[in-house]
Design brief:
By secondary structure, the chain is an alpha/beta fold. Helices cover about 30% and strands about 20% of the residues.
Length: about 290
Amino acid sequence: MRDHIDQLFPNSGPLSRRGLVRTGLGAGFCAAVSPVWAQVIHTPATGLVAGEVKVPSGGVDIPAYRAMPDRGGPFPTVLVIHEIFGVHEYVQDVCRRWAALGHYAIAPDLFARAGDASKEVDFGALMKSIVGKTPDAQVAADLDATLAFAKASGSADISRAAVTGFCWGGRQAWLYAAHNPSLKCAALWYGPLDPPKDALHPMNPPDVAADIKIPVLGQYGGQDKGITAANVADMEAKLRAAGKDFKIVVYPDAGHGFHADYRPTYNKADAAKSFEVAAAWLKAHGV
């Protein structure tokens, strides 16, 4: 499987007008990564309410995975933005991990209008037909709608909300931190900082650094071959020059995808530590 960042956001041409929306989430892990490694973490749903919900956004219903404690609330809210592989079992488990810590966690399928990323076996087709055709502006609108859905449920306290994300979702978390000032903070893992731009993806995190409105934690792997030390240093410099509240953590021995326990890139120690750091960041900022 190719992990290079310059392959994540190809020029995609006009957005499809098919009007088809994926109606539900599948089970299991993403088809493009095989085999699934034996070290995968399974967080039980004991003591939780967990499962699929539908989020109204832009005239359609987007499937999402939601997890929260089975009693009490309303709970502090965590938006979980998936990787390029969609809302598969790993992302669902991450939601349960946040819920086990007392949060309302929700991961909308932000590719729902383009297809089922979790079932696409061909990496090139995934990039061109699904990831590449999902506009950044649409992602932001869908995340806004997800927060509105969470608030309407009565179980989520969106006055105490954070956004998190992994890889593609990490880039989107940077962008959403510039879009939504109502969040308390953001915590992301290895979000690409300088992928190719196109009409649907016109800005990268360094371009919006001065517009970021909330504290941001960014966690990166020192061995990442796609997101270089120079990329990270440039982002830090722009954030610092703009006077932003941020923290960048680099794990020297980790590569790209080091939190993804179903992949060979997984680094158990750094994955565990990074989740602890993220949880502490959210807690310190009232989430």
